[in-house]
Amino acid sequence: xxxxxxxxxxxxxxxxxxxxxNAFFTQVLGLRRVKKTVNFDAPDVYHLYYGDASGTxxxxxxxxxxxxxxxxxxxxxxxxxTAFAIPTGTASAWADRLAAHDTANIARDSSxxxxxxxxxxxxxxxxxxxxxxxxxxxxxxxxxSADMAIRGFHSAAMRLRxxxxxxxxxxxxxxxxxxxxxxxTRFALPEGSAxxxxxVETLPGAAPATQGAGxxxxxxxxxxxxxxxxxxxxxLRDTGWQxxxxxxxxxxxxxxxxxxxxxxxxxxxxxxxxxxxxxxxxLGEALKLPARHEHLRTRxxxxxxxx
Length: 307
Hints:
Elements: E1 8-15, H1 18-28, E2 32-38, E3 46-51, E4 60-65, E5 78-87, H2 91-100, E6 104-111, E7 114-120, E8 126-132, E9 152-160, H3 164-172, E10 176-181, E11 184-188, E12 197-202, E13 216-223, H4 226-238, E14 247-248, E15 252-258, E16 264-272, H5 297-303
């Protein structure tokens, strides 16, 4: 069993409009844009990162906004929703705030004993705000008081037709099955406190999802550094998983593998972080380009939508 996994690192999704995406996460949810860069494989498309003040692993939602991308279709074989932690007692205030910003499909319920607010993002991507006693410090630069602001990720929920092999994988990654609520099994790291929960809903008869705008592209798990990442990669390969080589993503190193249920997993390092090429006070302001795309700067600055 792996012991290096520390919880979620980031969640990466697809969008159809960079401006709408940026406005929703920074103005409605009150997260900080910690990096404005481009897709390594499609540099004409932004890669936008939103999180806490410094982009701490476990707080960062990232997006590839492909202009006018068709909306994805919800189903099995995907991350169905991403949940953020909010302070206990703030769900009602958040529901009111979301309603005031004309957010779609707002609902209130309780999950595994915690009050939450469900809602859709600009492309129909499903989110939840879950009340939790979370000690993490929030980004408070967006006009949302610190006693209400988002703390970071609470959990991610996968929807699968058959969860058996994925449950086995999560156990190998250090997660324990800790609770059951209907068709949903909750997995958590035994010593974790924040961003350490994965929910797996089993729906044997449901149709598969179709990826598009509003779909989660991959789910990334955190490890401390490259040495721990190589240990994870070797252990996964020894167990039969097809894992990519280590890839430099500028702000972390990454490896990827496809899970039995169809969801793409990444294991990302906490190093070097988002401040290694930009002062912390000015994160997310300038367009940062990978070295291999620096020669495209003039064209990209002219063609990418201003944010």
